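Let's inspect one such protein example.
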Amino acid sequence: MTAVEEICDLLYRSYKTLMNLLIKKAKPVDSSNDEVAYRSIRYKAPSLLKKLTDGKFRTCEKEFELITNAKGHYANYATIKGRNPELQDTGLDRTFDRLMWVVSKREAEMLTYLGYGEYDLQSIFEQKEKILSLANCSAQIIVASALKKDEESKKLPALFATDTGKKFHNQDCPFCAGRTLTPTTPEKIKARELSPCKCLHGVPSVEEVFKPCITVFVDESIRPTPWKEGGKENQEGCFSYIAVNGYLLEESEIAEERVITRGIDYTSEKVVVSKVTETAIGKVLFMLKYEYNYSGKVLIYSDNQTCVDTWQKNPINCRLTAAFESVTVKHIPRELNTKADALCSKKFITVVDAKEYEKLGKAIRLLREIG
């Protein structure tokens, strides 16, 4: 087998594993929405297969767009199969089987062209989190990120610490005569909140090496309020966010010591969900720039595909983007965005008229007295 064929086979098997993982992750829900999505997927999958098989692309960006769409529909179909097994179709299964083989071949050709064929890609795609990342991330980015993390870890010298000390050191620290230094890791250093010893002067810090990017997970919600406004039914919108140090491929990589901030906020949008997400993206960018004085790379995950496609059309977001080294917004399946969703589920922000607020306060006090 050629290098391209070997990588193609590896990716194809990884996509088959991805299908099984997403089916297992899915939880049963009402089938009405899935039926609409299923009909759309049945219509679009054959068209994507034809376009990718023909290989006639005006630009590389167009090819990347088609591959991204194919992966997105594949992941959605897997989720639908897991939630509503009665909707699976053997004909559509065969279409997606051929489609993902074509996608694997295209990505294998690109990985080989970029020189990644000489690396141990098998060890990368043996990892569950890397396979799950294939649903919304190109194989090239996953491989590049994995190799980058490996290179970054090599930038740090071997680090040592005592069992009870407040600093970490190099192996030959001149200030630790008579003390027992044992090997430690960046993760343990962060967990113990150790600071660098003077012996590490001039060495890249853990923070410098492991914070090249800030990753943000956002979620949105529009809910009906339990009261009427002007005699009419009313609903309000809000959004949640979790900002984390580092380049994350999925929410399972979120660790408390890496979280910069999390919270929920209000938006005046009451109808269009994607507009709420646009507001969330703008809020996050404004906060990172003007509250945290950050202007590096930003990666934002949202489970709203419409907003992922249109967020830059918002003039405020467009201007804020210019303040950063780069801003990337990617789609993530709802099942893989549970932590930001939990914030919106547990809390809600709204605006209440002052008089209504007083009535609400009296009602709550009365209920507490009765209870």
